[in-house]
Predict the structure.
Amino acid sequence: MAETTRPRAKTREGVVVSTAMDKTIVVVVSRRIKHPQYRKYIRVNKKYAAHDEKNECNKGDRVVIAESRPLSKRKRWRLQTILDRAVTDVPELRTEE
């Protein structure tokens, strides 16, 4: 019997917009498509609920999510890698007057 290989999971790159739920993040993936009639490029956003096992993401992080088995009613994606961390601690600039 020949071994069949499982197809690669789809991946998407986006920005975390919510971490309010436990072990779940909401990621917005933005892509550009050409409008069929007007031939102008428009931006389309889609939100994905993804599983974050260690609660390591914060709002504003750029992440890669991968397709997985259904984990709950809306979660079909899991966190794969964190590409960039969001800047959270910005020191105030003091103006000398």
The CA atoms of residues 23 and 97 lie 47 Å apart. The mean pLDDT is 93.
